[in-house]
Design a protein that fits this description.
By secondary structure, the chain is mainly alpha-helical. It contains twelve helices and no strands. The radius of gyration is 19 Å and the shape is globular. The relative contact order is 0.09.
Amino acid sequence: MPRIVKSADDRRNEILDGAQALFFERGYERTTVNDVIAQIGISKGGFYHHFTAKEDLLEGITARLSQDAVARVRDILDDPALSALERLNGFMARSRSMKLADAPKFRAAFDVVFRPENLMLYHRINAASIAVMRPVLTGIIAQGKAEGAFTVPDPEAAAEILLHLNASTHDAVARTINAMGTAEEDAAIKALDQRFQFQGIAMDRILGLPDGSLTIVEPGFTRAVMTAR
């Protein structure tokens, strides 16, 4: 039987597919590089040609999931009838719906990424996500500036600031994770929910919008994600 030669992109995606399946099935911590190699049926040399460590796999999966998330809101991004504010709120609403649908997977990932010893991994994953989301958000903000709805001097800089603002919730999320299953659970979820609401107001003000223009969370969203298993 002739040997099938796959392109570099196909092989990379095959490795990410295998790693993602194992991470969701066994958990990130309990999956080794050797497990991934065995799952795919490639040589160690073949694996290390594409990735240098297990952390690179999670970073690659994050980037790919972000790209998939953008693809799943493409109808909102491309709808010519939407104003920038409608597009941004629609984008965030669809993103919340997708997170709720995949809440157990997100919650399992949180348990790993938000550990103190994995802070560097968190920043690498966040950087991979920002690289995908920055041009999308820049386009929406540029539209809002052209419409006169957003008062920002530089749409790309504003997009970066908003994305890094989202990343600034790391410590608040980590505290909530640590409180889960304890007497502090309800208070921690309420505090995180308030943090997200305040973040929405901060985003409004950065874009020059009236407070409450953007909806970051809805009632019950934070609890649903944090308690998912």
